[in-house]
Amino acid sequence: MRTSRVLAAALLAVPLAAAPLAANASPDPDLHITSVTLNKTGVAVSGLNTAPVTVTVKGSFDPAPTQSVNVILERTGGSGQERTLFSTNLVRNQSAGTWSGPLNVPSTANGTFKVTGVMTGPFFPGSGSMTDPTPYAGPSLAVTGTHQPKITAAVNPKQVPYGKSYSIKWAVTDAQTGKPYGSRVRVVLGVDNTCAEYFGPGYTNLTGTDGTVTKAYAADDANWVNCLLLPGNPASVGGLGLVVARPLTKPTVTAVPSRSSAPVGTIVPVNGSVYPLRSGNGCQVFLQRLYGASAWRTVSMARIRTSLRYTVNAQPAYKGLIPYRVYVPACSSIPATSKTFYIRGT
Fold first, then answer.
1. CB–CB of 342/315 below 8 Å?
2. For residue 181, which of 206, 230, 147, 213 has the smallest C-alpha distance?
3. Angstrom distance (rounded) from CA 136 to CA 83
4. CA torsion 124→127→132→138, rounded to 10°?
5. CB 177 within 8 A of CB 147
6. Side-chain half-sphere CA neighbours of 242 within 13 A
7. Average pLDDT over residues 158-182
8. Is pLDDT at 330 greater than 90 in this prediction?
9. What share of the chain in percent tops pLDDT 70?
């Protein structure tokens, strides 16, 4: 899942939170939930610690009685970074007809959460369960989170040229004091899919006692989201993702018609590329035809593919040699045009 948003002059930084993805799915018809209970109504948690809350689910899963499940809690109030909490993979007690296990609550969950559903496990974010969670309106949990972690990043160089490597100095500090926690912090430094699909523990690095860690990145990593995640069980408990800034450049636009001549009204595909440009940005290209001596008018358009290539369609409107060009407007770059090319209408 390659996803990125182009920035020309500024750093994009967004908090990251894990969430299951089940596009166009429905709840599992074999999962039946009778009740969900928590052994606490509220917890207090500080810094990088987590507070365990025992979750018990009563119900059944007909095809596989020992199947694990995960309980989902959604934020209903407060201002912590985490919007969703997931229990660990709850273990089935077949004789009791229940699943039970811990929900590890981080300080970044500061606020109020409510049980909203149960999903079949084991937990795997992004492209995990093929079904939606089974809805269940369960109990609420009040979380008092203090000394929450704050994550910052400094990219070097601030604007990363295309084709060049770079580094990011990440820092994890106490948002309440503005100081490091004084110990080495275990973190995940990810690129692209890891940022959306991390599940603990694995993929970990350590900061120094000053809370910082610097990672060198390959040139291609600049095309995707870079992130620091705070590992948890089963999901991350906080994080920051960013797309590095790029200097404005004027790309080279190529355009090659599939035919040099065609009968009037015939569609002629024109293929080309735009480089350098961040892949997957969905920028538009416009095929233009020359009217009169100097008026270029758009006759068709397309979007640039992740391969940085595109295809637009020309359609000779009259007999004779017809001038065309491809125009790329400002989209993470300086506007640019291809060389003029010709298609003869016959």
1. no
2. 147
3. 18
4. 30
5. yes
6. 22
7. 95
8. no
9. 88
User: What are the distances in angstroms from CA 65 to CA 97, 120, 211, 250?
Assistant: 9, 11, 45, 60
118 token code pair: 């149960």
Helix (H) or strand (E) holding 194: helix 193-197
Separation CA 187–CA 210 (nearest Å): 14
CA 276 from centroid of its chain's CA atoms: 23
- 38, 41, 75, 324 from 111: Cα distances, Å: 16, 12, 7, 59
Contacts of 208 (CB under 8 A, 6+ apart): 184
Work out the end-to-end distance of the chain between its first and last CA atoms, rounded to an integer number of angstroms. 45
**Two tokens, residue 104:** 């590890």
Q: Which one-letter amino acid corresponds to residue 38? A: L
Burial class (CB in 10 A: 0-12, 13-18, 19+), 34: exposed
**Matching residue, tokens 């994009």:** 12
Side by side, the strands of the sheet bearing 50-61 are: 31-38, 50-61, 98-106, 91-93
Question: Biggest alpha carbon distance in the chain?
Answer: 86
- Name the amino acid, one letter, at 199: F
Q: Give the residue among 288, 284, 298 at the shortest CA–CA distance from 338.
A: 288
pLDDT given at position 295: 94
Q: Exposed/middle/buried for 258, CB within 10 Å: 0-12, 13-18, 19+?
A: middle
pLDDT at 198: 75
Q: pTM value? A: 0.72
Measured CA to CA in angstroms, residue 212 lies from 203, 225, 228 at distances of 17, 19, 11
| Nearest in space to 40 (alpha carbons), one of 53, 22, 49 | 53
Distance CA 159, CA 11 (A): 9
Tokens 């689910």 correspond to 57
Q: Quick check: 308 and 341 in contact, CB under 8 A?
A: no
